[in-house]
Amino acid sequence: DHVIPCYQAYCGECKFCKHPESNLCVSVRAFTGKGVMKSDGKSRFSVDGKPLFHFMGTSTFSEYTVVHEQSVAKIDMAAPLDKVRTGRGARGNGQGKPIECKAAVAWEAKKPLDVRMVTVDPPGPGEVRIKVVATALCHTVKAGSSVAVFGLGAVGLAVIEAAKRAGAARIIGVDINAAKFGVAMEFGATECVNPKDHDKPIQQVIVEMTEWGCDYTFECIGNTAVMRAALECAHRGWGTSVVIGVAAAGQEISTRPFQLVTGRRWMGTAFGGYKSRVQVPDLVTEYMSGSTLLDKYITHNMKFDQINEAFELLHAGECLRCVLTFD
């Protein structure tokens, strides 16, 4: 089978999966958060006999990986593997042989990854071992509405594309790197703003541009100050601000209660709100029909051994998505 490993699982049985407004499956969350597998509480990765923890329930910076069945979406066999970032998978029962393969190991935070050979054990019950072919570093908007998107990386561009497809009349891209404005316009932004070009808070700038603010705002960076700015330029009375970016552990967000009392909604989303196993295949189908701009997100293709160079390009804002291949 051709599959996409998803960091957000879907079991279809838990309270969260059954609720129409949630995708926060809890079937394996307690174990993926610890970097181990549910069947025995252990990792399937090791180096020189010492265990390595899994990452985000997928660990796709490895030529082979083991994931929970709840974290795998089966897709169209005709989809190009290097574009949709998929792998080939097979279920396990704990039998079989360990596989030696290349992987990128993180020994310390904020340090370059160590590309080396690791051991991947056979999958246990309810698990799938996947050969990763390629990996990558990467809410309903009403028609006629106005949207502001903070952060014009791949996530922000995806929001812009989705907003355009939903029929948004005005889409404002916000970023401190003006070099990103051209591609944002290609994806559907109607205008772009650089906070550095103004001597007032960006939320005030957008409120003045739009008369009371935008119907929807999206924070796609993970900066708590920007999260506040995005909320405060949501339209008074009905504006919704969505937090997508992930802030560093321990950080908190704040605003004046008046911002919420006057009708703004502050919410967050994970995995785009998609129920992974049942809806990710639909996204692949959309790509195959030519209705999404997936190819435009891929700005670089590099060998897996160059993974640290790829991260440097991302950090410098010179890359949207870099596909890393093991061949």
Automatic annotation (TrEMBL):
Keyword Lipid biosynthesis: no
InterPro entries, sorted: ADH-like_C (IPR013149), GroES-like_sf (IPR011032), NAD(P)-bd_dom_sf (IPR036291)
Cofactor entry: Zn(2+)
Pfam family, one: ADH_zinc_N
Biological process annotations from GO: formaldehyde catabolic process
UniProt GO cellular component terms: cytosol
Gene Ontology molecular function, alphabetical: S-(hydroxymethyl)glutathione dehydrogenase [NAD(P)+] activity; zinc ion binding
Keywords (A to Z) from UniProt: Metal-binding, NAD, Zinc
Start and end residues of each Alcohol dehydrogenase-like C-terminal domain: 154-275
Protein name in UniProt: Alcohol dehydrogenase class-3
The organism of origin for this protein: Tetrabaena socialis
